[in-house]
Design goal:
mainly alpha; Tetracycline Repressor, domain 2; about 70% helix; Arc Repressor Mutant, subunit A; homodimer; DNA-binding
DNA sequence: TTTTTTACTTATCAGTGTTAAGTACAAGAT
DNA sequence: ATCTTGTACTTAACACTGATAAGTAAAAAA
């Protein structure tokens, strides 16, 4: 039987009910997706990359393991979403540090300190981004603002500014950037079992002084 | 029945046969152990840390998987033996570089280059030593000569020599060492998927110049 | 010749990522 | 109100993983 046609701008009551129902269920799906993501992030922080499992995520939120596959293509997809959030925070921090001062040298120092801070305060996420799954860095779905490549450009811009100001000698700007990056990355990842944070903090300052002074034109 | 006693210095023929047999079987065991180790090293290089499995090792040499457990306590034990060999080569290289010259700065440069070379030429082993399984560095069974701690001491000695020679200013020698280590370690581990070897080579030279010049007394 | 030891294998357990098939219920159509 | 379709989820299963216990055939020792 045809439904009772009470037209309201070409839309029947049935149409509106259908649309509302559809939207409600869509919201429920989104909510479960967020629930999975939150549980995944928690468990990742608790157990680390190597002992992170789909089944545990499912168990924590009270669903069967296969349900997750209705919301995420595969484990990597879920992990990527986890890291994606961490990446956003990282790039926010770094961009803020870069924007805080106009002095080229101070800017580079600030960026270096923020970089290391993030790495030491978020070791699991940092590891996922820059150690275990560097392939994620090339993932196209990484938030448009603050892509890894863009952040490296920000670093190189800061280096270029130092060159322009006559602080660094003209030369291989990208190479300078690589070297600075290597320094801070080295600090963050150097043998977590051997170095305590205090020793790391001392090392950061030395690395910053060394790298930046080392480039300094004489 | 008692054996025919043909004494030869208190040793019966039976004793000698027994001893020889025992030795022969002991040699066979050693040989199989080496075979397992060789296969493990191969497969580790082929498949990397994450996809290295006991069953594959067993299959390659034509034994059941459980046999390996008669020769190695567990997977970690086998992996440790693999890395142990790599570690020996690494420390040989580094000590040779340190002994090659008396000039403090040249020595540090040489050590840095050798460090990075080893890392880039043996990425799997380097990763096992300094990234995935840094806990192995504290393993007591690491060959007595060239322990990680000893190598760091060698580095610090070189730094101290530079300080004594008036090249570096007096200060936190261990911190200097950490910083130099962080630099070369950073180069080796920086996003393998993003950097080709050519770009890395340029970065090494810059890092060495930066770190060493940066420490230089003015 | 009988017993014991050695070297190895098969069967098994608990866990992993992932897919296919099945199920219960809600939505939509007539 | 009934029938059909689709949605959201589950159970069962596959092919792996590290690891252990129990079993077996042959060699050594008695």
């Amino acid at each position: 039987m045809g439904e009772v046609v009470i037209t309201t701008g070409g839309q029947t009551r049935g149409d509106r009910v259908r649309a509302a129902s559809k939207q409600r269920r869509s919201l429920q799906k989104q909510e479960l997706r967020r629930l999975i993501l939150a549980a995944a992030a928690e468990l990742f922080l608790e157990h680390g990359y190597e002992h992170f499992s789909m089944r545990q995520v499912a168990e924590r939120i009270g669903y069967s393991a296969t349900t997750i596959y209705l919301y995420f293509e595969h484990k990597d997809d879920l992990l990527f979403e986890v890291v994606s959030d961490g990446w956003q925070r990282f790039s926010d921090d770094l961009l803020a540090a870069a924007a805080a001062t106009d002095d080229p040298l101070e800017r580079l120092q600030a960026m270096g300190r923020v970089y290391v801070s993030f790495g030491l305060n978020n070791p699991a996420v940092y590891g996922l981004m820059f150690v275990q799954r560097t392939d994620f860095l090339m993932h196209e779905n990484l938030h448009s603002k603050g892509k890894p490549v863009d952040l490296f450009v920000v670093l190189c811009d800061a280096v270029q500014a130092a060159v322009d100001a006559g602080i660094f000698p003209p030369g291989d700007v990208v190479g300078y950037g690589d070297a600075i990056w290597a320094g801070v990355h080295g600090i963050v990842t150097l043998c977590p079992s051997l170095f305590d944070d205090e020793r790391r903090q001392r090392a950061v300052e030395i690395v910053l002084r060394m790298t930046l002074d080392g480039l300094r034109a004489r």
